[in-house]
Amino acid sequence: MSARNDPLLAAWEKSLRENRNRPAVLDERGKIIRTFCGIEERAQFFANQLKSLRPGSVVAIQIGNHPDWPSLVLACLRQQIVVLPLERSITKKERVAVMEICCASAIFASVRGLNGSEVALLRDPVVAAAVCGCRGPDSRPLNATAYPDWGQNQPSLLKLTSGTTAAPRVIRFRSDQLLADSENICQTMGINRDDLNYGVIPISHSYGFSNLLTPLVARGIPMSLSSDRMPRAIIDGLVATRATVFPGMPIFYQSLCELDAMPRLPRLRLCISAGAPLAIEVEQAFRAEFGHEIHALWIVGMRRYLLRASTRVAAWFCWPADARR
User: Fold this and answer.
1) 3 state SS of 292
2) Listing from the earlier edge strand, what are the strands of the sheet with 58-62?
3) 61 membership: H or E segment, kind and range
4) Which residues pair with 157 in a beta bridge?
5) How far apart are CA 31 and CA 18, in angstroms?
6) How far apart are CA 323 and CA 325, in angstroms?
7) How far, in Å, are 70, 191, 210 from residue 17 at the CA level?
8) Which residues of the chain have pLDDT under 50?
9) pLDDT tens sequence across 230-245
10) Burial 260-282 (b: 16+ CB within 10 A, else e)
11) Rounded to two decimals, what is the model's pTM?
């Protein structure tokens, strides 16, 4: 699929036309970091950096919840580069092993610059040693001499499974599949451009990518980003940003229920939980404290289920998450 025919890029062009000067990415205090126009400017900047790589190359992204995530994904789509999101917490050995398995030839990493955390494209052969924090006996050059042969089925994104129940696997996703996932999430949950996602879950995870990043690109739904997962910081962020949608995890909701002197959250209207089973006791305690139901998002095989946690079994919405090659 050429960049000209990419459905996710086409959706972005529409989002950009309709939202050029609107806030797109905010910090945890509600300060505007990127407008939609600002995302586009950064995307063009990164696309120029990627021109030296051949189409079909794999580039890892390991930047935490950095505001440049949307720009990097758009830049990769335009240059037909395959994105490999990596969680910031993985070890040095794990990072090098995954990049070699996926034949990644470069990585976008966050490095310390004059203006704080900046994103830099680091190339083989020094990519493993150059990543911020990658020093010591485990550091070694990345062996990425081979390029992947995708044939007629080049993906846009490689999602790495957690490996909690089996060995980690890499799953290919095309751009149209990413768009379909985003469209279904927004439609079934009633999320629109008047909402604001509060993003403390990692964008590098499938949950964060589908609930935070693709809705912004495809539907113009802004997000507030934070890396502080302490309970008080989450509550303070929800209050300061006036976020309406909170994609969280069970541990977040449990921790929030244990805080004292809780503020009201009148703007919050939708709470989602994924990443682990949500105990009914946690949902009941959260609903009693804040007056909001938690809707549990489950992925079973290739299907997604959004459940009201209080029902425990009754499916509210269900749609296929088509990840076939």
Assistant:
1) coil
2) 116-123, 104-113, 58-62, 82-85, 157-160, 170-173
3) strand 58-62
4) 83, 173
5) 21
6) 6
7) 16, 19, 22
8) 125-126, 128-141, 300-303, 309-325
9) 999 999 999 999 999 9
10) eeeeebeebebbbbbbeebeeeb
11) 0.86
β-strands 197-199, 223-225 pairing? parallel
Closest alpha carbon to 234 in 290, 185, 195, 281? 290
- Residue-wise pLDDT for 6-60, tens only, equals 999 999 999 999 999 999 999 999 999 999 999 999 999 999 999 999 999 999 9
Q: In sequence order, what are the residues at sequence separation of 6 or more whose Cβ sits closer than 8 angstroms to the Cβ of residue 120?
A: 108, 109, 110, 111
| 145: number of Cβ within 10 Å | 10
User: Across the beta sheet with 223-225, what order do the strands follow?
Assistant: 32-35, 23-26, 223-225, 197-199, 245-248, 270-273, 294-300, 303-308, 315-320
Hey, which residues does 158 pair with through a beta bridge?
A: 172
pLDDT of residue 218: 97
